[in-house]
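Look over this one:
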Amino acid sequence: MKHSLLICLFIAAPGVLAGYHYTATTKLDDKTNKQKSEMAVEAWIDGDKAKILFTETNNPLTPKGAYIITTDGGKLVYLVNPEKKNYQEWDMNQLLNLAGSITAMVKIQFSDLKLEKQDEHASDKIHGYATRYYKYLTSYDLRIKVIGIKRVQSVITEQETWVSDRLNDISLGLWLRNEPPSTGDPELDKLIKAEMSKVKGFPLRSKTKTVTRQWNKKKTKVKKETVSYADMEVNTFKKMAIEGATFAIPDDYELVQGVTGGLKGIFNQ
């Protein structure tokens, strides 16, 4: 099956393009439940184009050998599965909007939103690139109501990043992100985005600690506390020549409904 539109969209100009190649590892550690996992990627970047290959993962949505690509700086992302010879379309803006829709359906109310920059200073070089260290503390309370059951929780996130402002290819942000995932609350997400936009460049290392406390209804006693860590580190990073075909989807791969399409179907019922 020929996809002439995809050929026009993805195949870059002839010849070889200069860009970046890196490998990175993210380690997740749920201290409370004593669960650990690790994800590794290999990436090729050139301006607004990127390919992120999953070399180690236990996430069924992104199996080993699959990869994500973009040619517009991450606005439109494709998840490609070579084993099944298919691909899914991920619209990042739609996914963010869906997070808000889920929040509305489950009836989550946010309150006491705080974002504090605790530290900023020049730091050591990583892979030859000068970095700047940032430390942010984000906290908020939320009240959740699902099928008549009410819960009161508080979330505190401590994020440390080592950022190089010498890296400015926009598609580096497809994986090396300064911003944490969307909370689903427009006010908090706007606050985080406004503050993180002041951080120029992309992180070559990050450490995140999240503490979630479940309270009684009056918020006078903690019923359960969960502590988790996420450490991302770029293991190798170098400039290299990248062929334009790196960012192309094979023309015999089939387009299938992805996460965005499936969730949209649920909300439109």
